[in-house]
Amino acid sequence: MNAIRLIFIDAVFNEALSQLQLLPENVELNTENGFSLQVPANTKIADPIYVYFLNKGKNTVLKNKIILAENSELTLIEEYHADHLDKYITDVSMVLQFGKNALLHYAKVQNENKKATHQYSMQVTQLTGSSLYLFLTDLGSHIAKIQIQVNLSERDAIFDVKGLYFLNEDNQYIDNNIQVKHDAPFSVSGMSFKGVLDKKSRAVFFGKVIVEQKAEHISANQSNHNLLLSSQAEINIKPHLEVYANEIKCCRHGATVGQLDKEALFYLRSRGIEEKMALQLLIEGFTADMTNQIVNPMIRSYIEKKVVSHAKL
Questions:
Q1: Within this chain, do residues 144 and 291 fall inside the same structural domain, yes or no?
Q2: What is the 3-state secondary structure (H, E, C) of 86-142?
Q3: Per-residue pLDDT reduced to its tens digit, 272-300
Q4: Residues 46 and 182 reside in one and the same domain
Q5: What's the gap between Cα 290 and its chain centre?
């Protein structure tokens, strides 16, 4: 992947492994206790920025921030990983601030070890015509808690979050809590998640949308679909809508929980495909529907490779 690398090891920036020289000169970067990135007005960063956080055994606290000025554009991939099997905590806060007509394609990959606790909070403020396309991929950790709060404070702002999560260990747990406030007319929000759960794992999805009285002609959609590979896996889905506006375009939610299609599995087996491979193909088919919706082609390719590699049985 051709990208501008920013590497952190145990929350400490590693300049030697990073590529600061590839950043445009007018972009401001601070790398103390995480990263703070400011993209000035009318600046479009052509190459994606890849921020890699490697944990080598320490509890870490990261405070990240991205400020996109008017008419700026950025593609960013953020990944969390560990090279050990010890317990640790990663605590991350992210602040995103959008100027008018700013655009951010943003992917976050959580691939901590299976003893880790990953806590991630995001605060988003969007002005007129700004767009955030966010994709969350949770592949690791023992406990993952994600909290996102979005304020669509001016008209025509777009917030779209999609995500995949994979739980394949006993007592593995993930909690996605996403709250969007429509505070202006003609704003658009979307939440769409899929999960694959095995063994005694547990997931919670809470999606809340508030449409204020002045936020007329908005669109808000949310969905959560889960594939349970074990009868002991659990999912708790809590959609929540509060609509105070008199006229809206669309405001809906949907959720499903199911198991692997036995007929599809039988069909693949009858064609000479081994059971393990047949299960793999069905899982990939379930998740591909989500990755195919990623708008940015570079992010889509990167996430597809991560998901296919992780989903192998």
A1: no
A2: CCCEEEEEEEEEECCCCEEEEEEEEECCCCCEEEEEEEEEECCCCEEEEEEEECCCC
A3: 888 788 888 888 889 999 999 999 999 99
A4: yes
A5: 12
